[in-house]
Amino acid sequence: MSTDLSTDAVACEDAPAPKPPNASRIGLIVPSSNTTMETELPELFRRQSEATGHRYTFHSARAGMKQVNREELLAMVGKAADCAAAVSDADVDVIAYACLVAVMAQGPGAHKESEQVIAEAARDNGHPAEVVSSAGALVRTLQAVGAHRVAIVTPYMAPLTQMVREYIEAEGVEVLDAVALEVPDNLAVGRLDPEGLPAIARGLRREGAQAIVLSACVQMPSLAAVQRVEDELGLPVVTAATATTYEVLRALGHTPAISGAGRLLAGEL
């Protein structure tokens, strides 16, 4: 039996198939060792979909990074444009650059340039998309909800945690306390137990705080603890993942309607 592979029989498309109605494609640029962002974000958007009926699919590009140190972080930054072009081939609506500390390691305000580089790469590839970064999402979300004083938790070593603190403060948000869990291996960060976060949050110096950043890292699992900490401490709780979700929804023009992940994503802030 012969198979006809002539151009008349096989339609070769230059572009991805059209998106189905009532659906959005979200592109992610993640570290190669990421294990958390690609689980927490789909779960959050599953809840959004359950509430609204809108469908979301995820499409990832990976940039090499195993150890959370300045050298590997800056090397990852150099791959962002290539990753953006690759993931834009899926004709995504939004690209989320999901490594907060890789951006912040470049110095204050670096999220603006990173987002521009990614947007240009997607546009030059013929598939323009909205762009958010986890670094930009965190600081903009804190500003948007009026949280000018916060306490934060990070998995990073102390010097990187101090750098994150200074980055956030350069955006006009005072960091009252910063806990560094000091886990240098990114896979090990992804294995941290979110059940330990409520106790860590209780120990934060939070007098005068207007919000808690329970995880200033998209790789540190935190979703299971967000609502619990918010209910217990009575303060809004934001994470790198929930802030990124919030900004992706805004970029799509969608109103947050996510349950069990704090007031931010319930649309109550």
From TrEMBL:
Pfam families (UniProt xref): Amdase
Keywords of this entry: Isomerase
Stretches the record annotates as Disordered: 1-25
Enzymatic reactions: maleate = fumarate
Residues reported in the UniProt entry to bind substrate: N34, C99, L100, V101, Y156, N186, V218, Q219
Active site (UniProt): C99, C217
Record-listed E.C. numbers: 5.2.1.1
GO terms assigned for molecular function: maleate isomerase activity
List of residues that carry S-(2-succinyl)cysteine: C99
Quaternary context: Homodimer.
PANTHER family: BLR3294 PROTEIN
Function: Catalyzes cis-trans isomerization of the C2-C3 double bond in maleate to yield fumarate.
Family: Belongs to the maleate isomerase family.
Further remark: Reaction is initiated by nucleophilic attack of cysteine at the double bond, yielding a covalent succinylcysteine-like intermediate.
HAMAP family tied to this protein: Maleate_isomerase
UniProt protein name: Maleate isomerase
